[in-house]
Amino acid sequence: MTTPPSSATPSPSTAPAEPEGEVAAAQAALAGEHACVYGYGVAGAHLPDGVEAALAALTTHRTRRDELIALIAAAGAEPVAAEPGYALPAPVTDEASALTLAVLLEERLGALYADVVGVAITPELREFAVRGVVSATVQALAWGGAPTAFPGLDGRV
After folding, report:
1. How far apart are CA 32 and CA 2, in angstroms?
2. Taking the CB of residue 122, how many other CB atoms lie within 10 A of it?
């Protein structure tokens, strides 16, 4: 997948956020949404008991992707396009590996949205990103992920 490695650590900054940083973080979150749309297409095929939940998650990610595209375009930037395909971290061959992928997708996306929260200048984008962290965290838990004290920031402080 084309999301940053989970070992990336943010560096706190005392400098005011800049529009370029806001757009770059939003572009990274958009790339994460593209990866989720792709990943749920793969995982959904192996979730016979969770097909409705997988379709709902896919729909949510498509909607958030489209909203993020509109926010980035409104900021005067060209939204990043989806890749034609994404390398999966492991083969998805059964329900267990599909659940593992779904949790990983959501956790990585939550971290990307947490990055947006940290640099967002506009209240609209910050609120969107906060909702993204919450949504990704709730979805990761629904797929069997472990609860964390600071979703999106675990292992990054």
Report:
1. 7
2. 15
- Containing structural domain, residue 34: 19-142
State how far the Cα of 130 lies from the Cα of 82, in Å rounded to an integer. Answer: 23
Specify the DSSP class assigned to residue 144: T
Would 153 be classed as within a structural domain? no
CATH number at residue 110: 1.20.1260.10
111 found inside a domain:
yes
Residue 10 in domain: no
Q: What is the pLDDT of residues 34-86, one digit of tens each?
A: 999 999 999 999 998 888 999 999 999 999 999 999 999 999 999 999 999 99
- Nearest Cα to 111, choosing from 90, 84, 140? 140
Q: How far apart are CA 61 and CA 82, in angstroms?
A: 13
Residue 28 lies in a domain: yes
CA dihedral 25, 127, 113, 17 (to 10 degrees): 30
